[in-house]
Amino acid sequence: MRPYQTKGGEHKDGPQWKYKERAISEVGKILKEGLRDTPEPGTIIVPIPPSKPKKHPLYDDRHLQALKGLNYDVRELIMQNREREPLHGMKKRYRPSGLKRFFLIDESLVEPKPKHIVLFDDLLVSGTHFRVIKDMFDDRFPEAIVCGVFVARRVKP
Question: Which of 1, 46, 62, 150 shows the greatest Cβ crowding within 10 Å of its Cβ?
Answer without folding.
Answer: 46
